[in-house]
Automatic annotation (TrEMBL):
Record protein name field: Amidase domain-containing protein
Organism: Bursaphelenchus xylophilus (Pinewood nematode worm)
One matching Pfam family: Amidase
InterPro entries: Amidase_dom, AS_sf, FAAH2
Stored PANTHER family: FATTY-ACID AMIDE HYDROLASE, FATTY-ACID AMIDE HYDROLASE 2
GO (cellular component) term, any one: endomembrane system
Domain Amidase, chain residue ranges per copy: 56-190
Domain of life: Eukaryota
Amino acid sequence: MEERAQNFFVRAYARSIRRIQPKRNLLEPTSPNVIVNTPITELTEKIRKLELNATEMVHLYLRRLDSVNGELNAAVRIFGDESWYEAKQHDQYLRHLNQKSDEYRELHLSKPLLGIPFTIPHCFDIKNEVVLGGLKYRRSISPAHDDASIVKLLRQAGAIPLAYSNVSSAGLCWDGDCTVQGRACNPYDLR
C-alpha cells in the first residue's frame, strides 16, 4: 500500500511539472550564439585573454534581452548607449594594458567582473536615472545624484549596467505585478 501511495504522488508531481512547461522555453538561446548561458567565470577569462570583448558582450546581451523582453516584460529601462560607452572604455583599458604587467596579472582580483553586463532591480539608484520602484508618484522625482552602494561595487568590479529590471510596486510582493510597468512574467510559466 505504501509503495502505491508513493507512486501516486510521484506521478501526480510529474503531471504538475508537465503542465507548467511553457510553449517556448525563453531561457534557451534562439540563436546559435549561446554566450548568454556561459558561466561568468568563463566569460571573464575570455575577456581577460582578449578572446571576447566587453562591447561584444553588451551587444549579445542586448540582442538576447530584445528577443525575450516583449513576452517577459523583465527590463523596464535599457541603458543601450550608456552600456556601449562603458563597454568601449573597458575594451580600451584592456587593449592598452601590458599583458606582462603586475596590474594585468592581478586583474582577476581587482576587476573580477570586467566586461560582464548586469541588470539591477528598478529600486536601486543609478546616477542620473529616475528610480520608480514600481510607484507612480515617483515619476516626478529628480534623477539620482549617485549610484547605490551595490551598483558602485559592481562597477568597481568591472561590471556594466545593462538595464533596470521590473519590480513589483515598492518591491513588496513576490509575484512581479507592477502598477507602473506592468507584470513581469516567469520565463518558465508566462501566465
